[in-house]
Amino acid sequence: MTSRKLFALLLSLLLLVCPLLVACGTNGNTTDTSSADESSGGSGNGGESGGEKSKYLDENGMYTLENMNMPQFNFTETTFTVCVYSSAVQTTYHSEEIEPIATTDDALAKGVRDRNGLIEEQYGVTVKAFAVDNVVETLQQDLSAGAATYDAAMPFMGDATALAQEGSFYDLYDFPDYIHLDAPWWDQEANKNLSLAGKLYMTTGDISIMQKVVSSCILFNKEMYAELCFETYGDMYQLVRDGKWTFDTMHEMGQMATMEIDGVDGMSYNDQWGMVGTNSIGGMYIASGNKLIVKDHNDIPQISLGSTEASIRYAEKVLDVYQDDSWFINTQKIEKQWTERNVWEAAMGAFGNKRSLFCGSAFSALKKLRNYEADSIYGIVPLPKASVEQDKYYTPASVSMAYGICIPVNVPNPEFSAYMIEAVACGGKNFVTPAYYEVALKSRAAKDDGSEEMLDLIFGNVVYDLGSMYNFGGIDIFGGLIESNSTAVASTLESIRPSVQDAIDAYVEAYDFNE
Questions:
Q1: φ, ψ of residue 389 in degrees (nearest 5)
Q2: What is the reported pTM?
Q3: d(CA 279, CA 334)
Q4: Nearest to 314 by CA among 33, 37, 36
Q5: Strand 301-303 with 293-295, pairing
Q6: For 220-257, what is the HEC assignment?
Q7: Could you give the C-alpha distances from 245 to 176, 239, 240, in angstroms and in order?
Q8: How many helical (H) and strand (E) elements, i.e. helices and strands, does the chain have?
Q9: CA angle at residue 147 from 141 to 152, to 5 degrees?
Q10: Half-sphere exposure of 433 toward its Cβ, with a 13 Å CA cutoff?
Q11: Could you tell me which of 332, 359, 306 has the C-alpha nearest to residue 480?
């Protein structure tokens, strides 16, 4: 039996027996090019090392709150409501993890229903989604009115930073009896990197799947790879396992794949490319272990981009390679030659129609491939390392679109909110995250033994950058530089450095006022 089939079988058995178990109940890094002073601890695995893991599990091996010294549940509320994004406007980035909707994949819908059913059985509380077109606008309106019809919210992290700065959310550290942020159902990388001046107004973990949905990977056409690259580089998955999947190797492979195929002189969208994409390349820099912003020992943001000569050189290299039209076609910079609705769908269209070896993608785009020829013949690998010396593969989360769970200051009972957030997150570890893995595997329609292992590598090292989240003073310079065909990282950074520092200082001062 392959690892994929075994995984599916175990998941099916897990989802079958889990409703019978009392789970989540309670009886009462650097690389040679990195400038970061923080190492990536992996996503959601805090407190699981050694003998500590046992305290989070019950006798059936399910994650539980039983050993967390939670106070006795004595709240009178019977509904726990979370304000989330509906599918009316956010057709891709809408919420499905609080309550499933009609289009939710069956495995994920079952996982969400099983978690919610168990919480209702244990606490007598129904988990509900309050779905709106714009969570941040709803929060702003309700904060002005001084009342809320929900108990928690999951806005896009990037959009919610201003509200956090204004003191509109409770500090999650203020609820240590209820929210155990070191538990394995919370993403330790998010906790570590999203706090600011000792405060954590939003975070993520197994309470949401969106940080995985918007995480980055590289899609590759397995047929094209077998024909053009296998003889030189061997099995792609083995290359990743051996730590030899690097940025230079990806570039070399892409150059091998680029060729005219449409019978018209000159390379165009309709020819074959090594890679297709858009201006969104900043994640490739973060995948090297570098960051735009790091924090000092007082949890205060510091500019990291440009703090070493090596980080400048690598940033320039990424920009230079992605402006090389001998392998990469940028759908944002060519005259419209496609029928898709926008530049992002155009990039996916070139890959889906088997005209590109590689495509950088978020997992949110995988469903779109079901409409294309390449759906049955593509594979997934992490973003490449900067060099073979890099310690691990890093996966940048798109914090502008990832959800952050938060407790607005106008909710009826913040302690109830905190208690239920912990229960829903723990339940997500048992039901929702495994179900999403199954959805991700199935959506690929790629029956190969390396797929599950690649997902573990990708989701096991999701990293969050405060620079991408807050974009202090315009520090996220990559999109603008590639748009202007420039690699002038050092001079651009120096020109904006005062404004970046001013923005950092303003945010820290505002957070201090919320003490």
A1: -75, -15
A2: 0.85
A3: 12
A4: 33
A5: antiparallel
A6: EEHHHHHHHCHHHHCCHHHHHHCCCCEHHHHHHHHHHH
A7: 41, 6, 5
A8: 19, 12
A9: 85
A10: 26
A11: 332
Task: Enter the tokens of residue 149.
Answer: 């019809």
**Three-class secondary structure assignment of 42-73:** CCCCCCCCHHHHHHHECCCCCECCCCCCCCCC
**What pLDDT score does 3 carry?**
42
CA distance 139 to 406: 11
Please compute Rg for the chain using Cα positions: 23
What pLDDT, on a 0 to 100 scale, did the predictor assign at position 358?
96
Helices 433-444/451-459 angle, 10° precision = 130
Chain-centroid distance, C-alpha 14: 25
Hey, CA dihedral for 470, 475, 479, 484, is it positive or negative? positive
Q: What is the crossing angle of helices 157-165 and 489-513, to 10°?
A: 50
- Contacts of range 489-495, beta carbons closer than 8 Å, 24 or more positions apart: 489/305, 489/306, 489/312, 489/315, 489/316, 489/319, 490/306, 490/312, 493/305, 493/306, 494/306
Collapsing DSSP to helix, strand or coil, 359 comes out as strand
Q: Which residues pair with 397 in a beta bridge?
A: 215
> What SS3 class is residue 215?
strand
Give the pair of three-digit tokens for residue 365: 């785009």
CA distances (Å), origin 407, targets 157, 169, 222: 13, 5, 45
Which residues are bridge partners to 295 per DSSP? 301
pLDDT at 453: 82
Read off φ and ψ for residue 94, nearest 5 degrees.
Answer: -95, 160
- Distance separating alpha carbons of residues 218 and 235, to the nearest angstrom: 15
Q: CA–CA separation, 63 vs 66, rounded Å?
A: 9
360 close to 322: Cβ distance less than 8 angstroms: no
45: buried, middle or exposed (CB in 10 Å: 19+, 13-18, 0-12)? middle
User: Rounded distance, CA 177 to CA 184, Å?
Assistant: 16
- pLDDT < 50 positions in the chain: 1-23, 25-47, 49-50, 445-446
Between CA 56 and CA 40 the distance in angstroms is: 22
DSSP, res 415: H
Strand 395-396 with 462-463, pairing: parallel
CB-based contact 215:462 (threshold 8 Å): yes
What is the SS3 string spanning 436-501? HHHHHHHHHCCCCCCHHHHHHHHHCCEECCHHHHHCHHHCCCHHHHHHCCCCCHHHHHHHHHHHHH
